[in-house]
Amino acid sequence: MRDLTRGVLVVVERPHAWALLRDRLDPALVRVAWSLPATLPAALAAALPWALAADLPALPESALQALSGRLVALHWVGTPPAGLPTRPLLHADWADLAADLECRLRADVGGLRLAPSNGLRLPGGGYLRHTALLEVLIGAHPEGLELDGGGGTLAAAVRGLRRTLERTGAPLELVAKGATIKLVDRDGDDAGAR
Fold first, then answer.
1. Rounded CA gap, 125 and 49, in Å?
2. Segments forming the whole domain that contains residue 31
3. What is the H or E stretch that residue 146 is in?
4. Lowest CB count within 10 Å: 43, 48, 54, 83, which one?
């Protein structure tokens, strides 16, 4: 059974970046785990991360295959490898990446906020479980996620996200334009994070 705790998976050769993120990010909102590139498939089998952070110019083919078809926010320091499932957000260094993730963990998009550990706090004050994909999209706001290859992965993700978004009652809709999916308010403007 997969761990449902929201997590950031740090994929690096040495644990320094993992320690930085572990110490900076709120442990009530996210757990920070470390994986070597070679053990990434096993780490992904144990838990689907909310975000993946790395600084590697290349990943083993087995790691790229394990990421294939996954809806995950990618954050990269340096030049990312080809073949990633979503376009990564690029950061100047690990401190910049940590600061960005801190903001994303506290995002308020249309009244939706990440609840401690997992799930969402709803505009009316309620709580909704089983929202992992929507949590990823809230953390990717306002840019959204650009999926590489789109196709069936994008269509399936959009269907699931729309169903989950309806359950929240938030004044948002999911927009899929090309290979990018993002949240917008019902008036068609980008849903501002508060």
1. 25
2. 7-103
3. strand 145-146
4. 83
Residue 117 lies in a domain: yes
Residue 64 forms part of a structural domain: yes
- Say if CB 119 and CB 131 are below 8 A apart: yes
pLDDT at 192 over 90: no
- Residue 192 in any domain: the answer is no
Distance separating alpha carbons of residues 154 and 17, to the nearest angstrom: 31
Last residue of a domain, one of 83, 103, 123: 103
Listed in order, strand segments (DSSP E) in 12-137 are: 31-35, 51-54, 73-77, 89-91, 108-109, 112-114, 120-121, 127-128
Say how far apart CA 7 and CA 35 lie, in whole Å. 12
11 against 193, higher pLDDT: 11
Q: Of 77, 103, 129, which closes a domain?
A: 103
Quick one: pLDDT at residue 29?
A: 97
CA-nearest of 78, 88, 23, 84 to 55 is: 78
Residue 46 lies in a domain: yes
CA–CA dist 35, 19 (Å, integer): 12
CATH assignment of the domain containing 78: 3.40.50.2300
**pLDDT tens-place string over residues 167-188:** 999 999 999 888 899 999 987 5
Whole-prediction pTM: 0.91
